[in-house]
Amino acid sequence: MDFENNKAIYEQMADRLCDEIIAGTYKADDRIPSVREYAVMLQVNTNTAVKAYELLSREEIIYNRRGLGYFVAPNAREQIMTSRRKTFLHQTLPSLFREMELLGISIEDVEKEWQNKEVNYSENKQ
After folding, report:
1. Which parts of the chain are beta strand (E)?
2. How does DSSP assign 35-49, residue by residue?
3. What is this structure's pTM?
C-alpha cells in the first residue's frame, strides 16, 4: 500500500479496512485479518496495525472476540457510510466548490464529465 504524507499511517490503514467493509469484502460479523496478518499484508510495523485496530474498535466498526480475533460490527457499513457522507458534504464539497469557482468550472461542466465517466465505465466493463 502506498501511504500519503498528510495522514498518519494507522489512520490510512483504518480507512482502507473501512473501504473494504463498504465494498463488501468484509460483511457484518465477518472475521477480518489478524493484526499481524494485516501488518504483513500492508508491510507495516505490527504496532501501527494495532493502533489502526484500536481506532476502529473505539469507533465500534470492529469488535474483538478473545482468542478468535477481530470481527466487523453489525452496523459498521452504515456507520462508515454515514460518517463519510457527512465529511464529504461538510468538508470535501465546500472545498471542491471553492476550487470550481476559482477555475471557472460550472456545474454543467461537471455533469458532462460525470456523463462521460458513466459512458467510459460502461464501455470498459464490456
Report:
1. 62-65, 69-72
2. HHHHHHHHT--HHHH
3. 0.78
Q: Which helix (H) or strand (E) holds 83?
A: helix 76-87
pLDDT tens digits, 77-115:
999 999 999 999 999 999 999 999 999 999 999 999 988
Per the CB < 8 A criterion, the answer to whether 62 and 30 are in contact is no
For the chain, counts of helices (H) and of strands (E):
6, 2
Give, as one character, the DSSP assignment of residue 31: B
Q: Residue 112 is placed in which grid cell?
A: 458532462
Quickly count: other Cβ atoms within 10 Å of residue 26's Cβ.
Answer: 21
Cβ atoms of 32 and 76 within 8 Å: the answer is no
CB-facing half-sphere around the CA of 24: CA atoms within 13 A: 0
**How many other β-carbons are positioned within 10 Å of the β-carbon of residue 79?**
16
Between helix 35-42 and helix 9-23 the angle, nearest 10°, is: 100
